[in-house]
Amino acid sequence: MTPTDTGMLVLALIVAIPAFWVLLFFVVKGAMLAAIRQHRREIKAEAAQTAKASA
After folding, report:
1. Any idea where the domains of the chain sit in the sequence?
2. Could you give the CA distance from residue 14 to residue 35 in angstroms, rounded to a whole number?
3. Model pTM?
4. Percent of the residues in the chain that have a pLDDT greater than 70, as a whole number
5. pLDDT at residue 55, rounded to an integer
6. Could you say which DSSP state residue 55 is in?
7. How far apart are CA 53 and CA 45, in angstroms?
8. Helix (H), strand (E), coil (C) string for 1-53
9. What's the CA gap between 46 and 35, in Å, rounded?
10. Can you tell me where the transmembrane regions are (predicted)?
11. What span, in angstroms and rounded, lies between the C-alpha atoms of 12 and 5?
12. Displacement of CA 4 from its chain's centroid (Å)
């Protein structure tokens, strides 16, 4: 392995690791937003059901 190869490997790691974390962050954020939306939808459906039952 030449010094150039080592430098390229280090550079690749420096670029790849933060990119991986950013990607992971967006995946987790997206999943959480989807879960929150689903939960809100369930609450609205439940509220509508309750309103219908009491009417």
Report:
1. 20-55
2. 33
3. 0.57
4. 100
5. 76
6. -
7. 12
8. CCHHHHHHHHHHHHHHHHHHHHHHHHHHHHHHHHHHHHHHHHHHHHHHHHHHH
9. 16
10. 6-28
11. 10
12. 36
